[in-house]
Amino acid sequence: MKRQALVFALLLAPAVLLAVACGRSDRLGDLPYFPGSTHVGKASSIGEAHGFPRSKWEQIELRSAAPYEQVREFYAKVTISGWTSTFESETPKSAGRVYSRFLADAKRKQFYVVTVEERQASRTVAILLRRGLAKEDARWR
């Protein structure tokens, strides 16, 4: 029995390593990626942004061919236990609409910003997910 377990572990190890090495999860912290979206890029910075205090920011950019309303509704309904939605807006633009949602958790000193932008010219929807971790948080020292 031990030999079978060892053989199984040795066969499974490369698959596990490959999954870890790829490093693509389907979420940024507590925010899920829109199903079927394509990962475009990521960035990070440190500073004040979106009215939140100095933080370490991570950003993921996604693209989707789904209708704007469907993507907006998905992110409008995302709930994170213990978090409060601090602000939500939708603005018409000449090239499409832009939906923004800001979430905050004062206890953990974390912030999320979701931006869903309709791009009529390319018939795609751009999704920007941003997470801010306030400088005082011990995990960033």
Task: Give the helices and strands, then pairings.
Layout lengths: L1 H21 L4 E2 L2 E2 L5 E12 L2 E13 L3 H10 L6 E10 L2 E10 L4 E10 L4 E11 L7
Antiparallel strand pairs: 1-2, 3-4, 4-8, 5-6, 6-7, 7-8
Q: Which features would summarize this protein structure in a list?
A:
Protein Transport Mog1p, Chain A; alpha+beta; 141 residues
The level 1 CATH classification is: Alpha Beta
Number of strand segments: 8
Poorly predicted parts: 5-24
Number of domains: 1
| Helix content range | 10-25%
Average of per-residue pLDDT values = 79
Output the radius of gyration: 19 Å
Could you spell the SSE succession in H and E letters?
Answer: HEEEEHEEEE
Write down the CATH topology: Protein Transport Mog1p, Chain A
**In CATH terms, what is the architecture?**
3-Layer(aba) Sandwich
Q: Treating each run of at least 4 consecutive H or I residues as one helix, how many helices?
A: 2
Strand content: over 45%
Q: What overall form do the CA principal axes indicate?
A: globular
